[in-house]
Amino acid sequence: MNGKYKWIVNESRRLHEAGVTPAVCDKILYEHAIELCQMAAIEELFGDVKECERRYMSAQVLLHSLVQRHPLHPHHRTTLSKYRDAVQRRLNCLKGPRKIMDVKLEAGIS
């Protein structure tokens, strides 16, 4: 995750140096995070939990990086924080039942 975050920061700097405004960069990152969440939901429907988790985690990193940006309108910060928290809850739901099942399997309980 740290590597992805650093890549995002470097890409953002590169785009800024190329003359692309931060608002455009933020919009691209936001739209990509939303796409990742949509694809994760589809992966979840088809049962590919690993890929689903990977996509949600990537979206969470992007949303977190957007929340940390300065300056950011308070309304936008609140909205992005809600989205980020919703992705975190989804990840917790995905991990929770599987952890319980893993423990049951290890104990020989079906």
UniProtKB/TrEMBL annotation:
GO terms for molecular function: kinase activity. Residues 23-94 form the ATG1-like MIT domain. This is Serine/threonine-protein kinase unc-51. It comes from Pararge aegeria. Keywords: Kinase, Transferase. It holds the Pfam family ATG1-like_MIT2.
